[in-house]
Structure formats: structure tokens, C-alpha cells
Design a protein that fits this description.
There is one protein chain. Helices cover about 40% and strands about 10% of the residues. Strand 1, helix 1 and strand 2 form a beta-alpha-beta unit. The longest helix is centred in the last third of the chain and has 21 residues. The chain is globular.
Length: about 250
């Protein structure tokens, strides 16, 4: 029986979130969203991970929103090209999907109330704050209050209706936690472009490569591991060097 709900995209952050919840003794209901994003790769990875972990998994079909959200110009729900580069670049604002987290949290909250779960968990993190306003602490706090007030007396959603354990953590911090929890990097999907392989060039690929590299270097140095014994990222990228040029990590 589930005791909580996790918003689960199949990416590195949300997969680490789920492993972290399991480590805390929780049994989450994993909820993914098809909001008409330009590819379904992340949903395929989410389904495989849920099956591997023997967890309840639901995919909510919001694809009817695609035409309405496409007018925002977001490259994730329109035909415009996903920009390459680092998240700190202004061009990455093209990946913002209007009100996405409010929509997801509201639906996940409804599911939690219906199932008698005590909380909704999300993997938003500090690295998202620069580009995505609905990943910031003020928004998450306001959404939690709204969820509490809108369902007062109906369920166990009381003290912490929305749990965001990584909201003050960097992507590298999440990658370090993933290593501690034995999260298989290669079984998570981050790339916005949705090709056969991670492109290695879009904002989320660059952020992923930079963060995982930082975590691996620290972990291997701390444990004195080299060569075949060292921890590795087995994800295959079309371009695994570009990130170094845009992050000045040579």
C-alpha cells in the first residue's frame, strides 16, 4: 500500500528522489505526466524504473494541453528548436513550460488525498531556480499552503503536504546522493531532444554531465578508486565533450 505520491519524470532528479524515499522506508505511488512534451523517452524510462522497483506507477494524460501551451513558445511543447548551452544562459528560458509544476502538484495532491497519502514529493532543486520560477522555495511553499487549505479535513495532508528534499541542493549534490543510493545513471533520461541517445548539448544534458562528473570525481577521490574499480556514468552521449567548453571545465 502506498503512503505518499512522487512526481516522477524518469530523469536523474526524480529517480534519485524515489530511491531516497525508499531509503526512508516509504512506498510511493509514482505519478508521471504526458503533457505533450516533444518526446516520450522520459516516460519510457519512468515506466521501466517503476517496474524494476515494483512500485505503483500512473501516467496522467495531459496531452490535450499541448496546443494551449505551445503558444507560450516553449521549445518543449512546440516545434521550435531546443537550444544548446548551459542553464545559466538566457536562451534556456525557451524551455519554460507555463505553470507546469502547479498543474502537476495539483493533480498529484488530488491523488494523494484520494488515496489517503500523507504527502507529495517533488525533485525540484536549487539549480532550477535560475530558469524556472515554479521550482523556487516561495512557489513550493505557496503551493503547499494551497494544497493544505484546499483539502483541510479531507486527508492526512497536514504538516508537510509537499516535500522537496533537494530544493536547497545542487544537481551535483543530487548526483552524490544518487551514488550513495546506487542509482544507475544510465537508467535515467534527461535530454530534452529525445533522440536515440542523450545529445550531450542541450541545457539539461550539460547540467547533467557537469553534475555527475563533479560527483564522480569526488567519490572516486574519497575512496581512492581508479581504473575499472572507479565509479562511472554508463550513459552514452552523442557528444560528451561539449559540456566542458560551455562550463569552462577543461
Amino acid at each position: 500500500m502506498t503512503d505518499s505520491v512522487a512526481i516522477f519524470s524518469g530523469g536523474l532528479d526524480s529517480t534519485t528522489l524515489v530511491y531516497n524515499m525508499l531509503d526512508d522506508g516509504r512506498t510511493p505511488h509514482l505519478v508521471s505526466f504526458d503533457y505533450g512534451q516533444r518526446h516520450k523517452k522520459e516516460l519510457e524510462y519512468a515506466a521501466r524504473t517503476a517496474q524494476k522497483l515494483s512500485l505503483k506507477h500512473s501516467i496522467v494524460d495531459l496531452s490535450g494541453l499541448t496546443k494551449l501551451l505551445a503558444g507560450s513558445g516553449s521549445s518543449l511543447v512546440s516545434g521550435t528548436e531546443v537550444p544548446d548551452g548551459h542553464y545559466a544562459e538566457d536562451s534556456m528560458k525557451a524551455t519554460v513550460v507555463p505553470n507546469r509544476n502547479m498543474i502537476m502538484l495539483s493533480i498529484a495532491g488530488g491523488i494523494a488525498v484520494a488515496e489517503g497519502a500523507d504527502s507529495v514529493h517533488t525533485g525540484v532543486h536549487a539549480g532550477d531556480h535560475f530558469i524556472y520560477p515554479d521550482c523556487r522555495t516561495g512557489f513550493v511553499g505557496a503551493a503547499a499552503l494551497a494544497l493544505y487549505l484546499g483539502n483541510e479535513g479531507l486527508s492526512g495532508l497536514w504538516r508537510a503536504p509537499i516535500v522537496a528534499p533537494f530544493i536547497h541542493k545542487s544537481k551535483a549534490d543530487i548526483s552524490r546522493r544518487a551514488l550513495d543510493l546506487d542509482v544507475p545513471f544510465a537508467e535515467t533520461w534527461s535530454c530534452y531532444k529525445g533522440g536515440e541517445l542523450h545529445c550531450g548539448r542541450c541545457g539539461t544534458c550539460v547540467e547533467r554531465l557537469e553534475a555527475i562528473n563533479e560527483a564522480l570525481v569526488g567519490k572516486n577521490a574519497a575512496e581512492g578508486l581508479t581504473g575499472l574499480e572507479a565509479y562511472r556514468d554508463f550513459t552514452i552521449y552523442e557528444d560528451d565533450l561539449y559540456w566542458k567548453s560551455v562550463t569552462k571545465n577543461d
